[in-house]
Amino acid sequence: MFGLSAATIAGYLAAIVVLMVTPGPDMMFVLANAARYGRRAGVVAACGVAVGETVHVAAVVGGLATLVSTSPALFTAIRWAGAAYLVVLGVRALRGAGGPGTADAAGGGRGRSAFLRGVITNLLNPKMILFSVAFLPQFVDPAGGDVTVQLVLLGALFVAVQLAVDIALGVGAGRLAERMTDGRWSRRINRICAVAFVALGIRLAAG
């Protein structure tokens, strides 16, 4: 299909699954939003992350990602910006109430905020840049047809699978938060995600 064999696609999907079982900023962000504001906010956050991933894929196709990854100064700037953003998210989550959200809280301004922060969280993740540059091309077969078409297909598959996983996570965590009316579960998940954000930010800053 589009120059990619069934075996290549199967191996690619298997590799994606392995990558997704490792928690990262995107997964923590979706989980934190769902636990605090409900399943709708989790889904909106997942959509924001997917948009960020789409930008990364487009950058690979356009060659921009390669330029960023080969420029130490630019890559370091993005790494530090991403680290600072994660720490800020963690501190804000720790200072928040952490209670389950209402339908109104999940919509309107909360929804727009979750979407935009999801986009930013993904775009400022330098690991996504490295993934885009180093991972996607490994599954391209130059002899199999148009390389650009293959990259677009591989990127679309990744975004689709990631979106499905994040939405499932957001809906599941949101439902649990809505059932736990006393708010204890939401507060615990919120604190865990907050600490994870800060830890990921410090690790990212340390290189």
Protein described:
The structure is a single chain. The protein has 207 residues and is mainly alpha-helical. The chain has one domain. It is built from 10 helices and no strands. It is globular. 40% of the residues are buried. It is found in: Cell membrane. Its main location: membrane. The chain crosses the membrane at residues 6-31, 43-67, 73-94, 115-139, 151-177, 189-206. Pfam families: LysE.
Q: What does this entry show, briefly?
A:
The protein has 207 residues and is mainly α. It has helices at 6-20, 25-37, 39-62, 64-69, 72-95, 103-106, 108-123, 126-135, 147-179, 184-206.
List keywords for this structure.
mainly alpha, 207 residues, single chain
Number of helices: 10
**What would the principal axes of the Cα set say about the shape?**
globular
Could you give the count of β-strands? 0
C-alpha Rg (nearest Å): 18 Å
Secondary structure category: mainly alpha
Estimated share of beta-strand residues: under 5%
Could you name the ranges where pLDDT drops below 50 across 5 or more consecutive residues?
A: 97-108
Q: If you average the pLDDT, what whole number results?
A: 77
- Which bin fits the share of residues in helices? over 70%
Rounded to the nearest angstrom, the distance between the terminal CA atoms is 38 Å
What profile does the largest beta sheet have? none
How many domains make up the coordinates?
1
